[in-house]
Amino acid sequence: MKFSNLTVVEHPLIKHKLTIMRNKETGPKEFRELLKEITQLLTYEATRNLPTINVKIETPIQTTVGEMVEDKKITIVPILRAGLGMMDGILSLVPNASIGFLGIYRDPDSLKPVEYYLKFPPFSENHYVFIVDPMLATGFSIRYAIKKVKEFGVKNIIVMSLLSAPEGIKNIEEDYPDVKIYTASLDEKLNDHAYIIPGLGDAGDRLFRTK
């Protein structure tokens, strides 16, 4: 299945680490560490097209002009709670990025997102916002997050997920074809309870040992 807005980051290290994460015997400590490491690898690809500015610097030899990313114009929006597990992976590469928080839970009957918390830093039109959530299942939560960010006039929005389901990608692509999605794996489908198959279970529960 082809999606114009989706990039599956193919890398042997990602496949290796993701296999360990899928294993039900992997504990929360290792799960957290692996999620951070895979997020770093995803960030490398997801930031490939960030604009740079020219900066004059002095090397030990001479004056030259280098390029730098305006990382103060980058904002990370982790969807609470599981998105917190990806935040440090991005910050390790763009440490001056701002953080915005969006708390959403999924209604067990309708499967639709319900907002319970929102705190965004100031945005400008040329900001780059990275919405992160390990599991892109139905896509409802991510789609809601995109809607909230766009209300602030942001045009450059990138979604990063560990696993994605075709149903969720299609859901986002229909409403927001301009939003690029980077994921470590496009899994098979959703089951009757909207869990990703083969997936890895509930990422939040495995991160925080809440079940």
TrEMBL record:
Uracil binds at residues 196, 201-203. Residues 8-210 form the Phosphoribosyltransferase domain. Binds 1 Mg(2+) ion per subunit. The magnesium is bound as Mg-PRPP. GO terms for biological process: UMP salvage; uracil salvage. The keyword Transferase applies. One of its GO terms (cellular component) is cytoplasm. It comes from the Bacteria. It catalyses: UMP + diphosphate = 5-phospho-alpha-D-ribose 1-diphosphate + uracil. Its cofactor is Mg(2+). Pathway: Pyrimidine metabolism; UMP biosynthesis via salvage pathway; UMP from uracil: step 1/1. It is an enzyme of class 2 (transferase). Coiled coil: none annotated. 5-phospho-alpha-D-ribose 1-diphosphate binds at residues 81, 106, 133-141, 202. CDD domains: PRTases_typeI. GO terms for molecular function: GTP binding; magnesium ion binding; uracil phosphoribosyltransferase activity. Belongs to the UPRTase family. HAMAP family: Upp_B. Catalyzes the conversion of uracil and 5-phospho-alpha-D-ribose 1-diphosphate (PRPP) to UMP and diphosphate. This is Uracil phosphoribosyltransferase. It comes from Marinitoga hydrogenitolerans (strain DSM 16785 / JCM 12826 / AT1271).
